[in-house]
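Shift notes (night). Ran DUF503 domain-containing protein while the centrifuge was going.
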Amino acid sequence: MFTGTAVFDVLLPGDSRSLKAKRSYVRPIVAALRRFEVSVAEVGSLDLVGRAEIGVAVIAPDAAHVGEVLDSCERLVAGRPEVEMLSARRRLHGEDD
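Came back to this:
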């Protein structure tokens, strides 16, 4: 069994000057990521209105599948025209960890 996590740091548009506006950008991204059957949530920069950190976790029987799912998630976030992905951090935990 392998567990993989990814945290995507995204820059939101300049018109997101309130937490309500921030949610209007983050919520559709979170909903779109759920189609990959992953656990996903906003996990950082909660009080910053211009930034968001979205965390994703996946469990699979092999490391290759974990990598494929995280690749798909990263492509989805990077492909959103309304946000700019600043960084993506990943971790893979195997049976021996």
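The radius of gyration is 14 Å. The helical segments are 19-33, 63-78.
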